[in-house]
Amino acid sequence: MKEPEVNLTTALEQGLTEDEYQRILKLLGRVPTFTELGIFALMWSEHCSYKSSRALLKQFPTKGERVIQGPGENAGVVDIGDGLAVVFKIESHNHPSFIEPYQGAATGVGGILRDVFTMGARPIASLNSLRFGSFDHPKTRWLVEGVVAGIGDYGNCMGVPTVGGEIYFHPSYNGNILVNAFTLGIAPRDRIFRGRASGVGNPVFYVGSKTGRDGIHGAGLLASAEFDETSEEKRPTVQVGDPFMEKLLLEACLELMETGCLVGIQDMGAAGLSSSSFEMAGRGETGIVMELSRVPCREPGMTPYELMLSESQERMLLIATKGAEEKVKRIFEKWDLEAVVIGEVTDDGMVTVLKDGNIAAQLPAEPLSTSALFYHRPMRKPGYLKDIARFEPASVPIPSDMNQVLKELLSSPNIASKEWVYRQYDYTVRNNTVLLPGSDAAVIRIKGTTKALGLTVDGNSRYCHLHPQRGGMLVVAEAARNLSCCGATPLALTDCLNFGNPEKPEIMWLFDQCIKGMSQACQVLGIPVVSGNVSFYNETFGSPIYPTPTVGMVGLLDDCRKHCAQLFKEEGDIILLLGETRDELGGSEYLSVVHELERGEPPTLDLPLEKGVQETCRELIGRGLVHSAHDCSEGGLAVALAECCFHPQRSIGASMELKSSSIREDAFLFGESQSRILVSVPRQRMKETERLLDKSSIPWEVIGRVGGEALRVTCGGEVLIDHPIKELHHLWSTALERLLFSKEDD
Amino acid sequence: MKFGVVVFPGSNCDHDTYYVLKEVYKLEVDYIWHKETTLSSYDCIILPGGFSYGDYMRSGAIARFSPVMQSVIKFAHQGGLVLGICNGFQILMEAGLLPGAMLRNKKLKFICQDVHIRVEDIHTPFTTLCRKGEVLRLPIAHKDGNYFADVPKMEELKKNNQIIFRYCTPDGALTEEANLNGSLDYVAGICNLERNVLGLMPHPERYAESILGNEDGKRIFDSIINYLSKEK
Known about the structure:
heterodimer; A: seven-stranded mixed beta sheet; 25 helices; 28 strands; B: nine-stranded mixed beta sheet
């Protein structure tokens, strides 16, 4: 079959720029073939090459005593002792999920699972971070239902529990939702596999599903460009998932990894056969030659271009030791999967692609993988920041009925219970789940040890929109705080950076600022970044999403029995606030929901204080002094207090009494001052608790008592809030379903 | 006393079930690959939960053609104990070892949640140590758990006390709210006429350790072990 002619026009159609096309001509000293052009377009796409972000990502601290593998591989790897390591990563699947929510979200989960098990780890838990548009947008409900079903069906079928996550709704995502999927696996620490081709003459295997024409240009054209009126037409670039195939692939790969015959392995995710071959050869500083006519195909007549660019799911490229070919095939046959030798490792630094013996593409591995092009994009501080920071609290009236405000907040979609979502995910399979979804962080025990892991994903794009550098700090601090509230010491994090078009200097500035803030918090809190993903071009018709860095963080508990939950346990327990409440309202959920304002500076963050509060909280939990711990985030102290009362079987009331307050009532109740944790302490442990707290350098105070049928807050004798807890609980737990289905006539 | 946990392509609660028997109970237990056909050395065969063959076409519909199933049927007819959990229950119905079928849950969505089930009959090897009317809290995790059988079949099940577990409230009342998947007559688990084959939708293997906050699942495993040790 004759390939189309290659010239500047075809290069532009593939998503390359004129300058990039010139670079290709110079690099090769000839005009590329059409297949080669397609490979360049994919491998140099934003999604695959990180060309706009790579230089800035170097700001992240990536080293730590426990870090076995930092960024640059399929996933990060961290030592947890007992001869074990955790392998984890978060990844976006935003554009496909907006075009086709069910398949987009499902294959997002499939992709991140493969990233983790290619490294030799059995996936044991998943999380996700989702952003949808506002509730009154006509597409929102369809998107929510599709995404949640897609995540559920894929993860459930794989038997990997989805143990937590977060969901926010905001109009900035009306035209571009975010689906970020996180998976963690566990592996023997001395048996980690990497995506490297080594050992000249070793066979290159293609394993898993057959290749079809789906997902061609998914990474290049869909994920690396803004949305416009043609977006709907790009539906065929969305891949189709088959979780059953992936389950077989998982078991077969793990079985193979036990044999000692595996040299290197990489999943065919974005850019399929191209990225896996070029990246493995690039990282291994070797080369690969492969014959495309041996690739198992779903349909006849596929061209080299299509075969190299297809993003059909549930496929892997692997390098085995020479002589082990039959052994590899037998394992995959057992699982009813294809395993075909399509080539071998060479030492010429080239990836040579043959079709029926004829060269279809022959390109150097390095410039298309490990040292692909990168840009120092121009940056400029956006003009909106000057105006938006201006905020006069005095211009906001203090509401007279705080009961009403609390009810409004508890029923707002960003604060309401997400049970409607997570009950569609199997969160107890693999019987490890100790702390269920709906907690500050999920806790899973590690079989065969006394240990447990804390897992959380967090992000607050409003803070980042208002003050990107501080917003970046806040997201890291909150994730760490969530782990500390369940008793886990943060180990490391993975990040998913969701931003608009990087060709706009304002977007690049926001991106850089967020990274700076995140890095600062990581430094002070001692948390390295071990893996991550960047998603640019989250814009529709030129209007970008709020800057949304999402953090997936993993913590360790040495003794699983000493984990802590947010729910109050006993009547009569004393409620303490660690940290202090400041007169801060900027960027709060309260301002947005009640006053429809998104202005001001987000709350300040004193990193040493944050560290102190978290360490103290973990110590209180470790010594068994507290019955519960919960961090104050969206909705502030009043919402946090209410959430501690919402026990699924039996709500329990609480009262908070303050002699006086020097700050506004609404800031006191609903402001989002950072570094605050609510703990409840049994009366008989108060002395010991006080001694410990007095020795620490952090501010703290006794603020109330657990018990009764109501949530009651008084200040200087004046009643601010007094409402039956059962009613608040009902509002909070049913709000999301009501909002989603209120227009239904049943 | 030896247990076998069958592994179909797509089973995903096989590890959990194996773990509980091996590590919590310290019993002898093997994985049985679905292409194996010799079951004579086992006292109890467990068909675990999961998505055998992706649950494509219909839950359990393809798994019943796996080579091991002919042996499981023979094993059951010879009086061996067979326990099907979730997808395992669905496979037992498809294979004709238990009556009825599963429809999609009444709200058409996957449900993962703790439920309560009432022990309706203790005269089975799977409930020997339970009290009649005892309430167990166990998790469900399924999309197709809405039990259905035609009227004569239901009459028969009731007449022969084959309904072993029913969905209920924490204090044992049968209500529609407690019957999350919409099962006919609140059915959560049934046995065959000979009482040696039991299927149930909730997962006892997920609540069999104190570290997970609940050990109600042990009531069922304890009963089986009690029955087998007396029988020997």
